[in-house]
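JOB MANIFEST
job_type = single_chain_structure
chain_count = 1
residues = 123
[input]
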Amino acid sequence: QVQLVESGGGLVQAGDSLRLSCVASGRAFYHLSMGWFRQAQGKEREFVAAITRSGQSTFYGDSEEDRFTISRDNDKGKVYLEMNSLEVGDPAVYYCCGRNQGIGPLGDNYYYWGQGTQVTVSS
């Protein structure tokens, strides 16, 4: 079993930057491909970014590629989401997730999920 705990969310102004963190426990972190999804109130869950076990390959949703960066530190068992130039469309609960192999945008393929961290953007 894997436990994922996100942190780093909060209230920021449009144009600001924010870095989310997710720490994994319960299984060797380097065995997991990791991803970030978000869900705004009243909307469906949306894929944000994913990263392979080694960190050598990343994959982004269409609207995030230029502003968001996913990275990981296997020694620390953490995955990060650096978000720049936050926009009024970015507020949501951001979820960290993991899977045993592969990366991709489908949430159903990720087995492990955190509880989420709220990001709020004021104009």
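[summary]
The chain has no helices and eleven strands.
The longest strand covers residues 18-25.
exit_status = 0
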